[in-house]
Amino acid sequence: MLVHSRGARWALWAVFLVLFLPLFALPLLVVLGASFATHWSSVLPSGLTLANYRSATRGEALQALVTSLLTATGASLLALAAGTWAALAGAALEKRGKRVLDALFVLPVAVPSVVVGLSVLVAFSKPPLLLNGTRWIVILAHTVLVTAFAHQSVSAAITRLDPAYEQAAASLGARPSHVLWRVRLPLLLPSLTAAAGLCFALSMGELSATMMLYPPDWTPLPVLIYAATDRGALFTGSAVAVVLMAATLLVLFAVSRVRTRASYR
Amino acid sequence: MVWALPPVALLTLFFLYPLALVVQQSFRPDGGGPSIQPYTEVFASQAFRQALWTTVWLALASTAGCLALGFLLALVIAFVPFPGAKAVARFVDVFLSFPSFLITLALLFVYGGVGMANGAWTGLTGAAQGPFQFLNTPWGVLLAEITYFTPFVMRPLLAAFSQLDTAQLEAAGSLGARAPRIVRTVILPEALPALAAGGSLVLVLCLNEFGIVLFTGAKGVTTLPMLVYGKAILESDYPGACVVAVVNVLISVGLYGLYRVVSRRAGA
């Protein structure tokens, strides 16, 4: 215990609440409150209604939700495959090779997402790979952006892996492919699902690269929220934002269930 | 060695090659041969200098704010725990999985022209306009960035604090050191690596932040990523957009390289 006097402790907690509640809890509550309202011009929202949700779960909003879910699922699965492959291959390399591989794969974190969007746009707007105007360019950009996070968390998990298991399997005559499938990947499963959840959440909320790339028939939720707030429909935008948060949290929760089941094994 | 080739080939095709094309395009004004004309044009423009300055000071100020706030909050959670402190720590993790523009959206309701704060003020005083008109200025962006990125500092700090031996604190305390002194001489040195790592990550993320600035929608606040978007999508000036992109990449990749070195030193 750092602070022993009771009064000082209460004072510190008060400071904590005064900073924490308005800064972190309030924004989420405000978006939630606004999603049920039609007016907000005093302390509390007014004109309570469910109409925002009715428009947030049909028509173009529903389409956008499906678009976002498909994009995020596709991008996180592709990123997980590429990131895990790179992490496994990197672990087998000697020190310098591993360092180069790590540096290459974290580079997309450091490069601004807007620039990733621009570069994909510049590169795939002309043959041989003409992706501009299709949904694939959005999925591709999201994959590039989240692969770095998948690679980072899987390679961190690999370094924590106890080598005794795979050595035991190999000494009993298991082939490398068998060791990989039956020993290493099952042991890595908890971190793989955690990485998939992270990638999914990041892709669901991705706005910067998407704004550079999205074709009219593939509009993810963040773009729709921006379009709504830009034309002044803040309350509809909030309802769509709550749908986005709820969908993200639901998937993260489902993914964390997979993780707990696997870690008991 | 052979197994590392397929992922590297994919990365090269879909990330490094497009990035190289951006650099190439930045040296090629529309339809012409190689020249540095796009660079001289962009560097000479007032809009670019303004955006560069805004981006840098906003990122530095946000990072400073996040470090101060994150250190204070993590300190309370870790060393003066209250009932529910664990739940708060978990809430911080959830916060990280939401997109940044939600914060700006929320601030529109809190401090916007007819939002909560101004509405309460005009209701109380009868004034025609509330006093909170900073949302469309850089200060609104600064508030949103500090709010969104502080958890990125708190997470490594909480991890570092959980490894700190509390016996050190008890020893210092029983020898008569007061709390501020314990924080300064025992906790702060232990927290420095985590602060450095978290701070440089936040600095890079702030330099690259786009959603918050876009949602603020202020004409007066243009950062480098906004400029890239504006030039490429709104003006279709690809060489100009590529020049700004190259400058932005150089700044953030340079800083991120520094971050990696610092965090490797710190063993984080």
Keywords:
heterodimer; A: 265 residues; mainly alpha; MetI-like fold; 11 helices; 0% strand; globular; B: 268 residues; 77% helix
Could you characterize what this model shows?
The complex is a heterodimer of chains A (265) and B (268). Chain A has one domain: MetI-like fold (Orthogonal Bundle). Chain A is mainly alpha-helical. Chain A has 11 helices and no strands. Chain B is mainly α and 268 residues long. Chain B has a single domain, classed as MetI-like fold. In chain B, 77% of the residues lie in helices and 0% in strands. Chain B is built from 12 helices and no strands. The longest helix of chain B has 34 residues. The model of chain B has no long low-confidence stretch (mean pLDDT 84).
In short:
Chain A has 265 residues and is mainly α. Chain A has helices spanning 6-34, 51-56, 59-92, 95-110, 113-123, 135-160, 163-171, 176-204, 208-213, 221-230, 234-263. In chain A, helix 6 (135-160) crosses helix 8.
**How is the biggest beta sheet of chain B arranged?**
none
Given as residue ranges, the uncertain stretches of chain A (5+ residues, pLDDT < 50) are none
The first-level CATH class name of chain A: Mainly Alpha
Largest sheet of chain A: none
Percentage of β-strand residues of chain A: under 5%
Please report the two chains with the greatest interface, counting residues with C-beta closer than 8 angstroms to the partner's C-beta: A-B, 87 and 84 residues
Report the average pLDDT across residues of chain A. Answer: 86
| Overall average residue pLDDT of chain B | 84
The geometry of chain B reads as globular
Amount of helix of chain A: over 70%
The third-level CATH topology of chain A is MetI-like fold
Give the full name of the CATH homologous superfamily of chain B.
MetI-like
Q: In CATH terms, what is the architecture of chain B?
A: Orthogonal Bundle
